[in-house]
């Protein structure tokens, strides 16, 4: 009987310790990574900031037909009080340029002026830093101050760059399956 009670108490202590550890990990991750969601009708934007990696993962989705999905990875930096800047990462910029070239050859062709304007915009985002708007910068700065005040170092399951690569790979697989399906239908 005493052995059973001892095992039950040991199990209860282990379970409470695991629950507290999980809660501390989640709190630290919530301080480390800030997410902002904005949805309007069929359009959805998501910004995920990581203050340790100083990176931003931006997702744009259109929940309509045909569905549109775009993911971009940015470098993030803080310049003075409440002044945040982002720069499109090189690998993400190259992926976006490939998407523009693919879309230019699709069933809804774009004019050469539109393609060159989009390509120049992506190169500009890749080569220079641009300031975040004031509202988002204020939200980001408030959360950053909380992060500085009470963050405990934690190692996430994945980096934002790895997440971006996985999302991009899944998107390419879906596009390849859709292309194959369309070719078989013809």
Report on this structure.
- The structure is a single chain.
- By secondary structure, the chain is α+β, with helices and mostly antiparallel strands.
- The chain has a domain at 30-88 and 130-177.
- Helices cover 56% and strands 23% of the residues.
- The protein has helices spanning 2-32, 90-104, 112-127, 134-150, 160-185, and strands at residues 33-40, 43-50, 55-62, 68-78, 84-88, 130-131.
- Strands 1-2-3-4-5-6 form a six-stranded antiparallel beta sheet.
- α2 (90-104) runs antiparallel to α3.
- The longest helix has 31 residues, at 2-32.
- The chain is flat.
- The termini are far apart.
- 11% of the residues are buried.
Q: How many β strands by DSSP? A: 6
Main sheet: strands, sense, barrel? 6 strands, antiparallel
Class from secondary-structure proportions: alpha+beta
Overall outline:
flat
Task: Report the total helices.
Answer: 5
Could you tell me the radius of gyration in angstroms? 22 Å
Helical percentage: 55-70%
- The proportion of residues in beta strands is 15-25%
Low-confidence stretches: none
Strand order of the largest sheet: 1-2-3-4-5-6
- How far is the N terminus from the C terminus? 73 Å
Order of helices and strands: HEEEEEHHEHH
- Whole-number average pLDDT? 88
